[in-house]
Write a structure and sequence with these properties.
Blueprint: H1 4-16, E1 25-31, H2 45-62, H3 65-71, E2 75-85, E3 94-104, E4 109-117, E5 120-133, E6 136-137, H4 140-147, H5 158-169
Antiparallel strand pairs: 1-3, 2-5, 3-4, 4-5, 5-6
Helix pairs in contact: 1-2
């Protein structure tokens, strides 16, 4: 984690802040600092993923899943991330990152992150992750039980199917 002070602040505010529903949407606000910039004087590409990491952890702490999966000896791993950059984020510009669960299958949980700046979507990402124990991957149904979710599964969209096709092509 290359945003250590923001990580510390996020952990404090997530533990003290309002709770979130596991199928709801998390929202975090940031400012683009000079240390977030690239040579073109806008937020560097790698920072988007770092802010999404913070947003994912905040989301899991606030919905209670983080404590449950850690108590079960599990840890998250990302498999695939696809990002679409739409607009730059300028120095000292305020922006938000949203996180939400989109769907899942027997092996993967699919998440969406949006980076919003000035009322527009600056970037959107679809990623898939799983959780591992010392013995290996945890089936999604078992994971959802550990997280305390018993509700319905959201629809698996065409976008997710296409992302899976792309992921399969990249396994070479």
């Amino acid at each position: 984690m290359n945003l250590i002070f923001r990580l510390i602040w996020m952990i404090i505010t997530a533990r003290l802040g309002s709770r979130r529903d596991i199928m709801g949407e998390s929202h975090m606000t940031f400012w683009c600092l000079p240390t977030d910039l690239d040579m073109n004087m806008h937020m560097t590409n790698s920072r988007y993923h770092s802010f999404m990491d913070l947003s994912r952890i905040d989301f899991m702490i606030r919905n209670g899943a983080w404590g449950r999966v850690r108590a079960a000896g599990l840890y998250p791993v990302l498999s695939f991330s696809s990002i679409r950059f739409r607009r730059p984020i300028r120095p000292f510009q305020k922006f938000a990152v949203t996180s939400r669960v989109v769907s899942w299958d027997e092996r993967w949980i699919y998440l969406e992150h949006k980076v919003l700046a000035g009322g527009d979507t600056a970037a959107i990402t679809i990623l898939k992750c799983t959780f591992l124990s010392k013995e290996g991957r945890i089936p999604t149904d078992e994971l959802l039980g550990i997280m305390g979710y018993t509700g319905p599964k959201p629809a698996f969209t065409d976008v997710l199917a296409k992302k899976d096709e792309l992921d399969a092509l990249l396994k070479a």
